[in-house]
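Troubleshooting log. The previous structure file for this entry was overwritten by mistake, so regenerating from the original sequence record. Sequence copied from the archived sheet and checked twice against the printout by T.R.
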Amino acid sequence: MEQECVATGQPAAEWLPPGAALAHFEPIEGTQLMPKGEERAEVRARYGFRIGELGLLVSPDAGSEVLAVPAACALPGASPGFLGLINLRGSLVPLYDLCALLGMGESGAATMVLVFGQGEQAVAVLTDGYPKALLSLRPLSSLPPLPAALGSHVSGGYVQDDAVWLEFDHVSYFDEVCGVGLPQVN
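Regenerated output below.
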């Protein structure tokens, strides 16, 4: 029994394998499926997160993930700003309150946790929500006043929608301030 094409009512042709079907397609004359060379501008979103009044950018090469605030196991005698350890898929990850570490009070509005890195190299911070995709950052000519502990870990600043976003080097910050010793991101 011969099958018919539902759309045309004509006898169905032999089906092509998926790879052959894709190679069989020819675009309409004068059209272009993908821009070539320089026309093909890749827009890469940067992501920023808020810590109180500060907007900090996640390094484009940093591996990160966002979680709901988990229960942390506090450690006796821990420094202010260190909230304890969280269990992330079997790895113990230190959780910090950057507001407290930077002398900005405790993070009362924290609703999420941002985790930088993986496994033994991971470190987590409280944030005021999900990171925000930033597509139209404009460079600042000079940085605004920064908390002293943050100064040497900010290499630049940007503005988008009247909000300032700082280029935050989380690796150097946690290595120097907290002694976590994270690997450098290339």
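The two ends are 62 Å apart (CA to CA). Archived copy saved in two places this time.
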